[in-house]
């Protein structure tokens, strides 16, 4: 009979292999194709280990290899899986028509963010039609400490999130916890947050919370544009319209 310890060790080894394979696939959330050496650096594994795992992922269709450049990209099996994702409760799909309507009304780029740990992820975006505009790639991860949508995701989340962030070692050294908490309270009172060149020079944004049917925060709706055009005065004028769009999105999610 095989010892229990041996079976446990084998199980742990299998779990580690799965985690490593997923880490490799997650490398392609920010890049369309990568060479093996860079993948190995990103996941922190030896090249020989990464080579074996890449070969398995390629064999299963999750990755494709360009034999001329020896660079890897996502394979068709990924798209087959994505095609079967249920869209019934997906905010990115449900809120898109309202985001397009808001973009056409205000004329600036509209984004939808969700919180993931110490980051926010842009899960949907509708680009402005103006020649000079904010470009918002979907899937981009940004820090949760700066920006209008970040503040909304903290202000309207469970209080424990702000508590964890305030005691986090990753908190920017120049951020005053007491002043930041006061800012969050003001955002909750107004119902929206603004930012002027906080994360990116020349950019301004306003964000409002989107709540689901249970009243929990589902996402942050954000409108952003060049600060020279999207001025504090215009943001103040448009804030009520953005809040109303966020409320309509919440109703759409609830429906």
What's the short story on this structure?
This protein has 255 residues and is of the alpha+beta class. The protein has helices at 4-26, 36-43, 47-59, 76-82, 91-94, 96-106, 148-155, 159-166, 177-190, 232-254, and strands spanning 33-35, 63-66, 71-74, 109-116, 119-126, 141-143, 193-196, 203-211, 217-226.
The CATH superfamily of the largest domain is known as GAF domain
Q: Work out the count of structural domains.
A: 2
Q: N- to C-terminal separation?
A: 56 Å
Secondary-structure element pattern, one letter each: HEHHEEHHHEEEHHHEEEH
**What is the CATH class name of the largest domain?**
Alpha Beta
Explain the layout of strands and helices.
Elements: H1 4-26, E1 33-35, H2 36-43, H3 47-59, E2 63-66, E3 71-74, H4 76-82, H5 91-94, H6 96-106, E4 109-116, E5 119-126, E6 141-143, H7 148-155, H8 159-166, H9 177-190, E7 193-196, E8 203-211, E9 217-226, H10 232-254
Antiparallel strand pairs: 1-3, 2-3, 4-5, 4-9, 5-6, 7-8, 8-9
């Amino acid at each position: 009979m095989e010892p229990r310890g041996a079976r446990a060790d084998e199980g742990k080894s299998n779990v580690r292999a799965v985690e490593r394979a997923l880490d490799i696939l997650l490398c392609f959330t920010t890049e369309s194709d990568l060479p093996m050496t860079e993948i190995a650096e990103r996941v922190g594994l030896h090249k020989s280990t990464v080579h074996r795992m890449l070969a398995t992922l390629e064999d299963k269709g999750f990755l494709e290899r360009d034999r001329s450049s020896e660079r890897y990209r996502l394979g068709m099996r990924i798209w087959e899986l994505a095609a079967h994702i249920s869209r019934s409760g997906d905010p990115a799909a449900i809120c898109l028509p309202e985001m397009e309507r808001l973009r056409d009304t205000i004329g600036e780029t509209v984004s939808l963010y969700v919180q993931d740990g110490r980051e926010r992820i842009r899960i949907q975006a509708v680009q402005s039609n103006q020649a000079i505009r904010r470009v918002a790639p979907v899937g981009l991860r940004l820090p949760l400490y700066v920006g209008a949508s970040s503040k909304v995701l903290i202000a309207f989340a469970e209080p424990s999130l702000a508590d964890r962030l305030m005691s986090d070692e990753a908190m920017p050294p120049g951020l005053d916890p007491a002043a930041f908490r006061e800012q969050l309270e003001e955002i909750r009172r107004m119902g929206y947050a603004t930012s002027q060149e906080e994360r990116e020079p020349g950019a301004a944004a306003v964000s409002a919370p989107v709540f689901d049917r249970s009243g929990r925060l589902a996402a942050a709706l954000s409108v952003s544009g060049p600060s020279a055009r999207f001025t504090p005065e215009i943001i103040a004028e448009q804030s009520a319209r953005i809040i109303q769009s966020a409320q309509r999105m919440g109703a759409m999610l609830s429906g």
